[in-house]
Amino acid sequence: MEALLKLFLMVATLIWLVPAFTQHAVHVPRNGVIRGIAALVGIGVVNWFVWTGITVLSLGVIIPLNFLTLGIIGLLFNGLAFLAIGRLFPSVLYVRSFESAVMAAFVTTLATWLIERLI
Q1: Cα Rg for the chain, rounded, in angstroms?
Q2: Which of 58, 73, 76, 78 is least enclosed by beta carbons within 10 angstroms?
């Protein structure tokens, strides 16, 4: 039950909060819940591949570097994940630019942190 509530809150974040904070520069077209879930899964998969690939290629240097930059590098990688899904599947997630993708990643990160703290 807890996992379903978290999923619902994350989809709600992607469908309502992200477009509000990015002034609709990032949004799920036609506000579909299924499209929102697909976008979240896609972002998660891309994010996992990017982090794994970069960590292996940099021989683990990226992890302390992310710590030293207070998570800015992680935020940029999350923005790249948003941008990749937006470019690969424009009918699932519309992303106007890299800057809006980073802003969406920031909003999603804050919402995830808040959801984890409350539930």
Answers
A1: 14
A2: 58
Burial class (CB in 10 A: 0-12, 13-18, 19+), 55: middle
Q: Which residues contact 29 (CB under 8 A, 6 or more apart)?
A: 35, 90, 91, 92, 93, 94
**pTM for the full predicted model:** 0.88
Give the contacts of 28 (CB within 8 A, at least 6 positions apart): 14, 15, 19, 35, 36, 39, 92, 93, 94
Q: Which residues contact 1 (CB under 8 A, 6 or more apart)?
A: none
CA–CA gap between residue 53 and residue 105 (Å, rounded):
19
Two tokens at 71? 């998570």
Euclidean distance between the first and the last CA atom of the chain, given in angstroms as a whole number? 11
Contact 47, 78 (CB under 8 A): yes
